[in-house]
Amino acid sequence: MANPLEHQLSYPFGDQLPDTGTTLEIAPGVCWVRMGLPFALDHINLWLLRDREAGPDGREGWAVVDCGITSDLTRQAWERIFAEGLDGLPVLRVIVTHMHPDHIGLAHWITARWSTPEQPCRLWISATDWNAARTASRQTTGFGGEAAAAFFGSHGLVDPVAQQKVRERGNYYGSMVPEVPGQFRRLMEGQALRIGEHVWTCHAGHGHSPEHISLHCEALGLLISGDMVLPRISTNVSVIDLEPEADPLPLYLASLERMRRLPAMTLVLPSHGKPFRGLHERIAQLQQHHEERLADVLRACAQAPCSASDILPVLFRRALDLHQTTFAMGEAIAHLHALWLAGDLRRLRGADGVWRFVPA
C-alpha cells in the first residue's frame, strides 16, 4: 500500500533501481547497490564511494558503506560487483553505519577478502556499535533466547507458541553476523572523514542503535542516512532485554531534530526505500508520527491498564509475523517507557508478572 506522505517527498531516480549484483551511479564517485533480505523488509541499500588512501603514493579504490547480511546470495552478489563494478580497483575500507545484521553482517568477509598484511582493509564504525556487535555475535541481543522470551513475557507476550519461537531464536543475531572484525577505526560525532576527493561529516544518532553514524557530504549535497531517516517506514526504536528500563524514543527524536541543521534539499540515501529529497519534511513527518502514536498509547492506557502486548494493535494496524512481532514489542515498550519516564504514566506489575501502564 502506498504511503500518502511519500507524495510530499521527491524521488529524482523515479522507479529506477539497481539490479542485485550491479551498481547505479548516484553522483560522481557514488554508486548505489541493492541487496536482498529474507524478511518482509526485503532489501537493503548499500553504497560505494570512490576512495584513495592517504599519502602521495596512496592507492585508488573504493569504500564500501554497509554490507548486507551473511548469506551465500549476498556473497555472490558482492563477488559480481567486485568483478564487474569496481573498475578493476580494490576495496580500501568498509564503513558501517551501525551494528544491525543487514548493515554489518558481511563486514568480516569483505575486510578479510580485501586485506593483505601490508595493506589491511579496515572496518570503520562507532566504538559503541562495534562493541555491541561483538557482544551480539556471541550471544542473543534481545530478539531471541530465554532472556528475550522472559522479557517479552513480562510485557504481556505470553502466548506459548510465540514464547517457544522466541526461545528457539537464541542465535538469531549470530546466524546473520557470525563474526565481527577484531580491529576497527572509530567514527564519532562531528568527525570529518575524507573519502577520495570529498569530506563526509559524521552525524551520530541514538535510539535505533547505540551510536548510529550517518554521513553527510556538503560538496555533493548527499546524506547517507542509514536507518535514521527512511522515506516509507518509520525507523524501529526498541527496548530489549539487555537494557530493560531503556528510554530510546526521546533519544531518537532528539537525533532527528539535530539533522534539521542539514540543507533541506539534501539528497538522502536511505538504507531502505529509494533516494529522496525532502529531508526536513520527512523529519517533520516522523516527529508527528511518534507524537500521534504517543497520544494513542496514552488514550489506550487511560481506558484500561495496558501492557506492551495490549497496545500492539494500537501501534500496528496490520498482521505481524514473529519477526515483526518481536520488533513491534520492542517499539511498544519504547513508547510506553517514553510516557512512563516522562511522568505521564505509572508502571504496575500484576500478580501474573506482567507490567501494565496506567495514567500517572
From TrEMBL:
Report the domain of life of the source organism: Bacteria
Write down the Pfam families for this protein, in alphabetical order. Answer: B_lactamase-like_C, Lactamase_B
- Residue span, Metallo-beta-lactamase domain: 43-272
- The protein in question is named Beta-lactamase domain-containing protein
Which species does this protein come from? Sphaerotilus natans subsp. natans DSM 6575
